[in-house]
Amino acid sequence: SALADSDRPGPGPEVVAHRGASADAPENTLAAADEALAQRADAVEIDVQRTADGHLVLVHDATLARTTDVAQVFPTRANAPVGAFTLAELRRLDAGSWFSPASAGERIPTLGEFTDRLRGRADLLVELKGPARYPGMEKEVAYELDGRRGVVVQSFDHDVMRSFAEAAPEVPAGWLFDGRPTAAQLDDAAAHGVTQINPSFEVVDAALVAEVAARGMQTGTYTVDDPDDMRRIAATGVDRIITDRPAVLRTVLAG
Ligand code: G3P
Ligand code: CA
Questions:
Q1: 3-class SS at 238?
Q2: Ligand 1 within 6 A of 47 CB?
Q3: Are 36 and 122 in contact (CB under 8 A)?
Q4: Domains along the chain?
Q5: pLDDT tens digits, residue range 14-54?
Q6: pLDDT for 137-186, tens place per residue?
Q7: For the chain, which has fewer Cβ within 10 Å, the N-terminal or C-terminal residue?
């Protein structure tokens, strides 16, 4: 498979920790990476954006309001976009207290710090989050990940993924979908060298997995947290399942 660096305990879909093991640690932090490793995830999914001074950092939302104490630290900028802050400013924020008192002091990591934390221990599924806001970001991510093994880059923005594939043809590329991809979209993806199709789990069934496989691509799906959903999705033959609860998924797959 494209995500091949980690030691997989058995057959079946790869276990991907969504934003890290985000049910048990603050999302998109090094603590969530450590928790994903502790829960034996094969890979970790993260969301990448860019600071005002050009650093690649991990944040999911368009603003910092939900996952940090930005309202306390920068009261007039609580709803400013992530890209309006420098890395030094982001470093002042607590990205853990919102989740639990025990997570206080977690910081927003850079992409480089996060990949270093996982190196050789789990693979990485990098989502370019809202990349239209960050022109050229895909080329910077390609440069940052150059030569790294066990990495897939994906986005809902398929135009940006076409540009990424030109910048880094050797890195496996994924297209995210909100709904069920059409045959035309799957043909388009295959024609652009996409290797991973990643729709929301509600639309995934064995027929879709077969349609994707017939075009030489793999299917992943997000975000599957309920054990009954995990069982149904695993039975479709998907190649990877993205979950906030890697340990629960491991248990379901073992049963
Ligand atoms: O990996 C796919 C999934 O993360 C996409 O949704 O909103 O969690 O980034 P979201
Ligand atoms: Ca994501």
A1: coil
A2: yes
A3: yes
A4: 14-254 (3.20.20.190)
A5: 999 999 999 999 999 999 999 999 999 999 999 999 999 99
A6: 999 999 999 888 999 999 999 999 999 999 999 999 999 999 999 999 99
A7: C
Catalytic center residues: 18, 60
Please say whether the beta carbons of 5 and 230 come within 8 A.
no
Contacts of 76 (CB under 8 A, 6+ apart): none
Closest atom of ligand 1 relative to the 125 alpha carbon: 1
C-beta neighbour count of 105 within 10 angstroms: 10
Distance CA 231, CA 11 (A): 15
Separation of 79 CA from ligand 1 center, angstroms? Answer: 21
Any atom of ligand 1 within 6 Å of the Cβ of 58 = no
Q: Is residue 127 in contact with ligand 1, taking CB distance under 6 Å?
A: yes
Pocket test for ligand 1, best of 66, 67, 125, 127 (most atoms within 8 A of CB): 127
Distance from Cα 93 to the centre of ligand 2, integer Å: 21
Q: Tell me the CB-side half-sphere exposure of residue 203, using CA atoms within 13 A.
A: 14
Ligand 1 centre to CA of 69 (Å) is 23
State the Cα–Cα distance between residues 133 and 126, nearest whole angstrom: 17
